[in-house]
Design goal:
single chain, mainly alpha
Length: 86
């Protein structure tokens, strides 16, 4: 991946992570799945796995976005997507 593309990904990841609407949507999906999981029929293994996967995906999305930011920081000695050269 080129440095310009990595910089673009890092910048967009930062924007997405600070977007209130995205954060709220992801939180709602995660909380709803956790609430359903807490009350779900213990014998319904397929349903349990489905809900666990929803929670896992929300964590993976956040981890991937954070990883894009961190990867850019290590490739150029500390790039910060929210601080562009003037």
């Amino acid at each position: 991946m080129s440095e310009a593309l990595a910089e673009h990904y890092a910048s967009e990841a930062k924007r997405i992570l600070t977007d209130d609407t995205f954060a709220e949507a992801l939180t709602r999906v995660r909380v709803a799945a956790l609430n359903e999981l807490a009350e779900h029929d213990a014998d319904d293994k397929t349903g349990i796995v489905r809900l666990q996967q929803k929670v896992a995906v929300t964590h993976e999305i956040l981890a991937e976005l954070q990883g894009m930011i961190l990867a850019m920081g290590t490739s150029d000695g500390g790039y910060q997507p929210d601080k562009r050269p003037g």
